[in-house]
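Reopening this one. Same input as before:
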Amino acid sequence: MSGTILNIPDKLVRRIEAHGVETYPHECCGALLGREADGSREIVDLLALPNRHENSPRNRFVLTPEDVRLAEKTAREKCLDLVGWYHSHPDAPARPSDFDREHAWPWYSYIIVSVQAGVPRDVTSWRLKDNRTSYDAEAIERQGAGIRFAEKHRA
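Same output, byte for byte:
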C-alpha cells in the first residue's frame, strides 16, 4: 500500500460497476474528477468515455487525446481536477495488467472493477510509480449512507 487514500462516494462506485456491466464483455473506461489534499483524493464525479480500442476491446481500453482534453475540460467546468481514470477487467482480476502499466501515467489514480460473468466483483485503485516499473495499491474509502469503510488490496 502506498499510504494514499482514495475517498469516493459509494454511489460513484456503483456507477463504475454499472458501466462495467453495461459494456461487458468489453472493458469500460472513464475519468475520475475530484480534488487532492494532504495525501488523499476525493472523487466527486465521473465522466464515462467510450473504449476506442478497435482490435481487442474485451481486454484493452484506449483513450484518444480528444478524450483526455474532454475530461480536463469537464473537470475545469465543474471546478474540479482530473485525478484519475477507471476501467473494467471483464472476467479478470481487478489488478493492473502489463498493458495498463505501459499506457498509464504516474500520479493519477486508476480504479479497476472486476466484472465476472457480467457481475461486478472487486473494486481496487492503484497509482503507477514514478519509475513506471509497477503500481502502488491505493486504499479506497467508500462513503455512503453514513457508512465509511476501507478496502485493501495487493498488487
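So the earlier flakiness isn't reproducible anymore. For the record, The longest strand covers residues 40-49.
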